[in-house]
Structure to design on (146 residues):
């Protein structure tokens, strides 16, 4: 694999520092040396440790199930836009089961917990924000203008 081919795989303004891959024979020493010439550090997963990719596989699966399975991206820029919108929703507004009813970034929404879960104060209403054209929605209480 020549440097041109490697550069086509690693493009963009992201400022890559690492390339992580497993120990499969498809990743040759020539590929690793080409990646190093681009200033990247090649990290290989531990030998006989399939669980080393578990976090990455879980995130990729969530992105597919919750987002990409329902959309047809037009081009690479569209995919980047979709993933940027979904990532913000995933990290700031979407409930995560490991957190109970909580969200990863509680500072994103400052909602007061109510003892009666189905009660909406008279001076408030439920506001909805569509995400990715309505694929997902974010809900919050908003004060009603006087």
């Amino acid at each position: 694999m020549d440097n041109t081919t490697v550069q086509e795989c690693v493009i963009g303004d992201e400022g890559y520092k690492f390339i992580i891959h497993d120990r499969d024979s498809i990743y040759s020493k020539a590929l690793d040396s080409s990646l190093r010439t681009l200033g990247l550090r090649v990290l290989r997963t531990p030998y006989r440790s399939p669980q080393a990719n578990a976090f990455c596989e879980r995130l990729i699966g969530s992105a597919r199930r919750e987002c990409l399975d329902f959309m047809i991206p037009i081009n690479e820029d569209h995919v980047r836009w979709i993933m940027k919108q979904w990532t913000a929703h995933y990290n700031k507004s979407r409930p995560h089961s490991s957190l109970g009813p909580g969200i990863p970034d509680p500072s994103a929404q400052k909602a007061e917990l109510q003892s009666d879960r189905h009660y909406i104060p008279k001076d408030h209403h439920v506001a909805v924000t569509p995400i990715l054209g309505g694929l997902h929605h974010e809900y919050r209480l908003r004060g009603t203008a006087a």
